[in-house]
């Protein structure tokens, strides 16, 4: 499963709630069960529109919103089935959040601005994107908050083979095509040059919505499925999004560093894996929230501390670097006073944590 | 039986039987003897390893404290020898002690590591003890010799261990799951990155050795099959979550007979699940405190779990929850389904259709 990161962008995902799935069949089952189900009689329909019509005709009630959908995705007018019918702007925005830190393929941009070579650019663009070969392990990235100028951008027929490192490219649904890696570069400067939309089969590359569209979710695809609830945070995200380069960068770094994520910043403590963290970052700006529960919880065995915000989802134990027992062992209470029994093999991280928690006054002992 | 009757509702909403004279700090592991209903618990307090004899009179369960030994530092793990005579316990004092409690003998140190020993298991087919520690090694011990028979390097600290001969799975700190075939213990059979994206907390091997369960700090359990042909049966599901709080899954135990399994989490709840039908069989009420460990007895009729109750005195309860066999057997699953199929479907769907989300 080491390939997870690369694969993620090529997974299918649900338009309504942004969850990702391994294959479309499961996605469809999910949609039927969650979004196309009549709330009165629980009959599963095949589309949102169909469900609305059923409710109207059979139960004489009108449904205007798709159940369990994120705000902005609740319309019953859009005909979605599996991955089909997803508007191209939403599709791009979704994949734009998938970025890894290594810039992925250069965009093939027709856009007549700056250095980008129009048309197929089978190699690094003049813009200085790393050569495609570096993308070996990185999923192509969509520009996160970049509006793709609709002009002239005809579906660049990015030939599949152009992505040698991306065998999954042939997978239609997500066909992640080369997207310029946005987040690492000052978005403002490069914005016009980035565009490139995936030519995934379903996509008509016409409009790519302006950056405001990252209603899709927290940067880490990983986090999606965990937060069906985090709808409210999304709007706050759209603004930090275009400027939140640091935020986007963090998750990507942490995505790399699986286990031993030493705290790089207070935000990062909540970022391991990304999931819990995203809510933290959103709640009150990038750094103020920190982990919702403050420094790593005193003892995992205790009941969780009060939650700061209603809509945040957080891990009660979110310390990736240590297990609960290790943390507990490091408490003064369990220390034996002679040095010989100090756990020499547990590294300085533990000491630091003790210090942090003591300072934070959270030690119950 | 309980001296805290007034507060019973909070920490014992399931009306489990409480064990007398529990340790005064939280319990780190529980194990039942494979031969008799003797329960051993290791705890953080006074570094004790205590044992009780559990007896059942009809539907009541009684416990009699029997004996205890101490270590120098908190004890983290315990296991019985397969003949039900000896208990091995290891912990932060970096040693494992062998305690022949049935014969009333004194404990002897049989294993040493450079760092606290997190997990210990007895492998009857090899007559060896295997210990996993935070010093990133796994060591196999013949209890009669002071040196390990074999030392196996791990990529990171050992956090979880499960043995079901010849399958052994070790969960390490960096979310690796190392699978060993005990017929060839010197080489790793397979190294799998955990399907869960968070720190591994516990693992449990299927009774039929076809795969294992892995639980993480993020309220999720993954079901993983070893055989490549069965990979499509792998799935993960979410559990032990409450609103926006995600609790860690602390313990995974298979029922010895029915092959359903139980999970216990930091939310204070324990649930019973069937991985083959991908359903939750029973959800028990949440206790007010986390449940760090749990176990079944040898015939699956008793499920013991510990709840750390923090009253002013910090008393701990170990409760044995009597299982009515019909409720948890596979046959009864059918009852559940037939009786209230629409309800079950609702319940299942409202829990997020856990088997459908392959994240």
UniProtKB/TrEMBL annotation, chain A:
Q: Which residues form a coiled coil?
A: none
Segments traversing the membrane:
none
List, in alphabetical order, the Gene Ontology terms for molecular function in this entry.
Answer: DNA binding; zinc ion binding
Q: Which InterPro entries match?
A: Znf_BED, Znf_C2H2_type
List residues of the BED-type domain.
Answer: 7-66
Principal localisation: nucleus
Lineage: superkingdom: Eukaryota
An example Gene Ontology CC term for this record: nucleus
* Chloroplast keyword on record: no
Name this protein carries in UniProt: Zinc finger family protein isoform 2
Automatic annotation (TrEMBL), chain B:
**Name of the protein this chain belongs to:** Transducin/WD40 repeat-like superfamily protein isoform 2
Record the organism. Answer: Theobroma cacao (Cacao)
What processes in GO biological process is this protein linked to? RNA export from nucleus; transcription-dependent tethering of RNA polymerase II gene DNA at nuclear periphery
| Start and stop residues of the WD repeats | 68-109, 110-151, 249-283
Quote one Gene Ontology molecular function term. ubiquitin binding
Keyword Cytoplasm set for record: no
Q: Which UniProt keywords apply?
A: Repeat, WD repeat
Task: Outline the segment boundaries, as ranges, of region: Disordered.
Answer: 1-20
- Has the keyword Repeat been applied to this entry? yes
Q: Which InterPro entries is this protein grouped with?
A: WD40/YVTN_repeat-like_dom_sf, WD40_PAC1, WD40_repeat_dom_sf, WD40_rpt
Give Gene Ontology CC terms: nuclear pore
């Amino acid at each position: 499963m080491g390939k997870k990161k690369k694969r993620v962008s090529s997974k299918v995902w649900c338009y309504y709630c942004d969850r990702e799935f391994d294959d479309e069949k499961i996605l469809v089952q999910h949609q039927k069960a969650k979004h196309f189900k009549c709330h009165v009689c629980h009959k599963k329909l095949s589309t949102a529109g169909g469900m609305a019509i059923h409710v109207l005709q059979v139960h004489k009630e009108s449904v205007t919103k798709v159940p369990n959908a994120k705000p902005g995705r609740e319309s019953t007018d859009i005909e979605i089935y599996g991955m089909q019918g997803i508007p191209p702007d939403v599709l791009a925005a979704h994949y734009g959040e998938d970025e890894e830190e290594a810039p992925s393929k250069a965009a093939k941009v027709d856009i007549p601005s700056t250095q980008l070579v129009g048309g197929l650019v089978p190699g690094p663009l003049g813009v200085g994107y790393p050569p495609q070969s570096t993308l070996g392990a990185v999923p192509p990235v969509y520009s996160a908050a970049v509006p793709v100028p609709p002009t002239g951008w005809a579906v660049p027929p990015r030939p599949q083979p152009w992505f040698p490192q991306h065998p999954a490219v042939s997978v239609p649904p997500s066909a992640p095509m080369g997207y310029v890696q946005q987040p690492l570069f000052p978005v403002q400067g490069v914005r016009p040059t980035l565009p490139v939309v995936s030519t995934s089969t379903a996509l008509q590359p016409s409009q790519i919505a302006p950056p405001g569209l990252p209603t899709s979710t927290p940067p880490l695809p990983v986090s999606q499925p965990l937060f069906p609830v985090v709808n409210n945070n999304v709007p706050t995200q759209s603004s930090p999004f275009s400027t939140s380069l640091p935020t986007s960068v963090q998750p990507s770094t942490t995505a790399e560093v699986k286990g031993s994520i030493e705290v790089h910043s207070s935000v990062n403590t909540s970022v391991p894996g990304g999931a819990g963290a995203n809510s933290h970052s959103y709640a009150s700006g990038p750094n103020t929230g920190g982990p919702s529960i403050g420094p790593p919880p005193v003892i995992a065995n205790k009941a969780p501390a009060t939650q700061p915000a209603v809509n945040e989802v957080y891990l009660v134990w979110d310390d990736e670097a240590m297990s609960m027992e290790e943390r507990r062992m490091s408490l003064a209470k369990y220390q034996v006073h002679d040095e010989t029994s100090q756990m020499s093999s547990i590294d300085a991280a533990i000491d630091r944590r003790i210090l942090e928690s003591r300072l934070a006054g959270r030690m119950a002992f | 039986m309980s001296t805290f009757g007034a507060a019973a509702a909070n920490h014992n909403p399931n009306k489990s039987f409480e064990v007398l004279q529990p340790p005064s700090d939280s319990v780190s592991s529980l194990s039942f003897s494979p031969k008799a209903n003797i329960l051993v618990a290791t705890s953080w307090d006074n570094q004790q390893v205590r044992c009780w004899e559990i007896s059942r009179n009809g539907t009541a369960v009684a416990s009699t404290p029997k004996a205890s030994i101490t270590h120098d530092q908190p004890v983290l793990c315990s296991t019985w020898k397969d003949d039900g005579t000896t208990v091995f316990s290891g912990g932060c004092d970096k040693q494992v002690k062998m305690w022949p409690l049935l014969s009333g003998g004194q404990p002897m140190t049989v294993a040493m590591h450079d760092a606290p020993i997190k997990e210990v298991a007895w492998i009857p087919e090899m007559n060896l003890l295997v210990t996993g520690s935070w010093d990133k090694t796994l060591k196999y011990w013949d209890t009669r010799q002071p040196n390990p028979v074999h030392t196996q390097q791990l990529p990171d600290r050992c956090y979880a261990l499960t043995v079901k001969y010849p399958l052994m799975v070790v969960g390490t700190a960096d979310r690796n799951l190392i699978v060993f075939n005990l017929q060839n213990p010197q080489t790793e059979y397979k190294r799998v990155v955990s399907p869960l994206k968070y720190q591994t907390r516990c693992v449990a091997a299927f009774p039929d050795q076809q795969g294992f369960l892995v639980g993480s700090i993020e309220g999720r359990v993954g079901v993983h099959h070893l055989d490549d042909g069965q990979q499509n049966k792998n799935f993960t599901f979410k559990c032990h979550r409450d609103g926006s709080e995600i609790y860690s899954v602390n313990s995974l135990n298979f029922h010895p007979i029915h092959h359903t399994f139980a999970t216990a989490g930091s939310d204070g709840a324990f649930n019973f699940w069937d991985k083959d039908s991908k359903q939750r069989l029973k959800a028990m009420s949440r206790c007010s405190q986390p449940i760090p460990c749990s176990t079944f007895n040898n015939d699956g009729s008793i499920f013991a779990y510990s709840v750390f109750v923090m009253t002013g005195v910090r008393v701990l309860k170990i409760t044995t929850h009597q299982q009515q066999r019909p409720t948890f057997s596979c046959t009864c699953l059918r009852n559940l389904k037939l009786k209230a199929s629409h309800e079950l479907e609702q319940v299942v769907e409202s829990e997020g259709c856990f088997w459908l989300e392959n994240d």
